[in-house]
Every structure is written in C-alpha cells, then in structure tokens.
Design a protein that fits this description.
Elements: E1 8-15, E2 22-31, E3 36-44, E4 48-55, H1 74-91, E5 96-100, E6 105-106, E7 111-112, H2 119-132, E8 137-142, E9 147-152, H3 158-172
Parallel strand pairs: 4-5
Antiparallel strand pairs: 1-2, 2-3, 3-4, 5-9, 6-7, 8-9
C-alpha cells in the first residue's frame, strides 16, 4: 500500500530565530500527477522532527493541513513523507518523528471532523507501524489529539525523551496539554 512514492527534493532550510525549542525548518517539495506539495520538517531539540505536508497552493491558507486534495493519492503522498523520514533517520539514527493527524474541514459542505482519532491519524498510524515497526522506534499515540510520536530506540533513554518531549510540546501547544 505504501510502496510507491514521488521523487522529492530539498528546497530550503530556515533557521528558527528566537524559538525556545525549534531549531530549524527543512522544506522539501514533490509533484504528484496534478499538484505540487510542500513538506515542512520542523527540527526540535532532542532530535525530534515533526513532519507536515500540504498542497503548495494552500501555503498561505490557515486551513492548509485540514483541506482534502480530492486527488486520491493518499498512500503515495504519505509514502513520500516516509521516504523523507527515512532519509533523515539514515543521516541521524537518533532522530525521532512526530505528527498530528489534522481533522478534515470541508468549507463547501460545512463538515468538520472531530480532532480526536481523525481519519488522517488512523492512516498515518497504520503506515508507521507497518513500515517502521517497533524494532527501530517506540511508538506513542495520543488519540484524543490525534498526535503521534516515534522515538528512536538508538537513544539511551526512550522514556526520558518521551517525558521531555511531552513537556516541550505542552509548553509549545498548551491546548494539547492534559
């Protein structure tokens, strides 16, 4: 299901100035059959990489993560993001990854999916377990917020990274804190 992917390229690195935890944002791009996509990888302390993607034409749209493309290429797009993650992990074996499965918002129909256990989150979770398993990463999920964190088992203390990551993201995103 996640075998094929689009060719991608790194298009830039922006240093995060005056951010407490965020170090930089690495941007990649790829083209599907009909659209251009951007993948932003936020690099945080503790070697945590948060992967986000959206259509290039939605870059300035505040709902860019919530919109459907209507392209029906989900597995190939997700697989492309996974290839980027693999490239990062190859260069940095201590790299850990996280993401949120954004809820779907359809402006035309007025439909807004719950933020808990979103469809996107469920697809991403399935892909992470299928393609990464538990030998390389320890997986943590937060169904209520559709949040996912995979910590590299090469780290000395996976639990320590998890606890520090939770504190960091609670500080950055207080709306997600318990």
């Amino acid at each position: 299901m996640f075998d094929s992917y689009y060719r991608f390229s790194k298009v830039g690195v922006d240093k995060a100035l005056n951010k407490k935890y965020l170090k930089e944002i690495i941007t990649y791009s790829f083209k599907s059959e009909n659209n251009y996509y951007l993948v932003e990888v936020e690099v945080y302390v503790l070697d945590i990489y948060i992967v986000k993607f959206f259509l290039k034409r939605h870059k300035r749209n505040p709902l860019k993560y919530n919109l459907l493309t209507k392209e029906n290429r989900c597995s190939k797009v997700v697989s492309t993001c996974i290839r980027i993650m693999l490239q990062i992990h190859f260069k940095n074996p201590l790299a850990s990854f996280g993401f949120l499965g954004a809820n779907i918002i359809e402006r035309e129909s007025g439909y807004e999916e719950s933020k808990s256990a979103t469809k996107r989150f469920m697809v991403y979770r399935r892909a992470m377990y299928a393609l990464f398993g538990t030998e390389t990463f320890t997986h943590y999920i937060d169904l209520e917020h559709s949040a996912y964190l995979m910590i590299s088992n090469k780290n000395d203390s996976v639990e320590h990274i998890k606890d520090k990551a939770k504190k960091m993201f609670d500080d950055i995103f207080p709306e997600l804190a318990d």
